[in-house]
Design brief:
Radius of gyration: 15 Å
Order of helices and strands: HEHEHEHEEHH
Shape: globular
Structural class: alpha+beta
Number of domains: 1
Number of strands: 5
Number of helices: 6
Length: 127
């Protein structure tokens, strides 16, 4: 993940970890080895971005599965709003993380419930 972060920062491409990548840094609960990254890349530029990232990061294009998932947010401003740095990585806000997890099968809801409980214990909110 460190190489991916360094690559995105070098290219000056805004990014934010989400789903299990973010929850591992906030309060891990569900074990999942995949990485989930929102990138601020225009839809028309995503093919070129992915091709370059594949070469620069030595990624393999798989027919099925994989462990690094780049996502282009539908509403860019909301995903990157209130993103913060945790352990040197840009991470979506607590609210965005909760919303992303709640709709992510099969164990996203379980992770979201854990985060909600953890936030309450720490006196944190989603906003």
């Amino acid at each position: 993940m460190r190489y991916c972060r360094d690559y995105l920062e070098q290219k000056k491409t805004a990014y934010a970890l989400t789903l299990y990548s973010a929850s591992r840094l906030v309060s891990p609960y569900v074990k999942d080895g995949r990485e989930f990254i929102y990138v601020d890349v225009a839809h028309r530029e995503i093919a070129a971005f992915l091709k370059e990232a594949q070469i620069q990061l030595n990624l393999y294009k798989l027919v099925h599965g994989g462990n690094i998932c780049f996502a282009i947010p539908f509403y860019r401003s909301s995903v990157f709003k209130d993103a913060r740095k945790i352990k040197g990585y840009s991470v979506v806000s607590n609210l965005q993380l909760y919303l992303d997890l709640m709709t992510f099968p099969p164990t996203g809801e379980e992770e979201a419930d854990h985060l909600l409980s953890d936030f309450k214990k720490k006196g944190q909110s989603f906003v």
